[in-house]
Amino acid sequence: MATVEKKNWNCEAFSKMLNLKFLEFDNMMISSSPRILPNSLRSIKWSRYPSKFLPSGFQPNFLISLEMPNSKLVRLWDGRKDLPYLKKMSLLASKKLTTTPDFSGMRNLEVLDFQFWDNLVEIHPSIADLKCLKWLLFGFCPKLKKIPEFLGQMKNLSSLCLFGTSIEKLSLSIGRLVGLSSLSLLYCKNLVDLLSEICNLKFLTALGVGGCPKIDKLPENVGEMECLEMLRLDGTSIRQLPHSVVGLKKLNSLSLGGCESRLPSRLLCCLPLSYERKAFELASLGGLFSLRKLDLSNYGLCEEDLPSDIGCLSSLEELKLSGNNFVSLPASIGCLSKLTLFWVNECQRLQQLPDLSKLISLVDIDITSCTSLKMLPHLSSNCSLVDNKRGYRQFNCANFFVLLCSGSLSLSLSPPYTFSFLFFSFLYSFFSLSLVSSTFPSVYDLPENWFKPKNQKIGPKIASSAWSDFPIFFFKNRTKPDWTG
């Protein structure tokens, strides 16, 4: 974050700058407040504007851009102000403003950014007459409960952000925003319904209603939104998608994870395998040929909840199934030829994975805390169990030790990754394999070639008590030694 400097600036100097066109104060706190600003200004960018009001005689008829983030303004001006050339108004994080200005004299506005207004409670109805408006941003305005009616004038509006507001319902006129391409309703915790009129937005490409726990269904005709590419439904109470969703031919990202009403994962892992819970119903996904990202994390899904034809998603690149109740997964997952990321971490009842050896594009698989896993997956030579961003991946798999000793786990993956153990004082700089909080059987004689590079001696054999609940991490190699075995 840039350092904010305090400056002693004599704002009386503005009275002599009669032809000033561009004014910018960035990351600077001015001690005095201006009594006058030049009417000749075309662009104002003043971060942390120090006064509660703009100068009373300020009438910048040719102003094009007004940006005053983090200002101390409590009101812009009273009544109508004619600013016919103004295209952008950004008052980001102006926390003391409670209402927007009258927009009737700003007919050419294209961008309005009023995000992070902690106390905004009212939007002037004249906003509906802004025919040129393209971006309307009210994200993170927690006291905003109502938005004006859209009167059909705002046909050029392409992005509407109501992220984190307190709105309870959408206006029926939302369907008149025919040019809208992005609608964010994320974390509108009081929003109770998605109107069917929203499906009139034929050019909408991104719809986010994640984090809206009172939303429990999508409109039945959601499949009519033919241009939709991204749909976020995570953190809602939606239990079933309408069958028309397969009509979303351009959909490439679908997020359904994180439903709040599911049972806690710690409880789920203790339930008997005969326990049946229909947490969520998915129709066949085979029609979503453009889908690239699918997130079904933390939905309490069982294996019968996942469509067997999931392998028909021929464009799928990322599949996240973390935190669910699967015991097994559909074999067709092994047919997702473009899959690059596959996460099933925290699936504590998962006992086996499908054959992944043909997924040559797969480079990231996460099986962290799959404590019931009985066999590790067969992977292509391109895939690594190492988290490349952190350099390691921590596991919690109670059966890892048994897998190693039974030979089910191969100790050689594709270069540059090689497996070694961390134990006692043998703290090599190239640790890779990990066993975390595992409980091991009685006593095992571990082969020496699991622990040492060539020509290096190793300590005594290890008793099981030394390994019990011993934290070991999975590290990316820093060096590449020549291992035996």
Automatic annotation (TrEMBL):
Keywords, comma-separated and alphabetical: Leucine-rich repeat, Membrane, Plant defense, Repeat, Transmembrane, Transmembrane helix
TM regions (residue ranges): 395-413, 419-444
Positions of the Disease resistance protein RPS4B/Roq1-like leucine-rich repeats domain: 215-389
The keyword Ligase belongs to this UniProt entry's keyword annotation: no
A Pfam entry, by short name: LRR_13
Domain of life: Eukaryota
SMART domains per record: LRR_TYP
Gene Ontology BP annotations: defense response
Protein name, UniProt field: Disease resistance protein RPS4B/Roq1-like leucine-rich repeats domain-containing protein
Organism: Prunus persica (Peach)
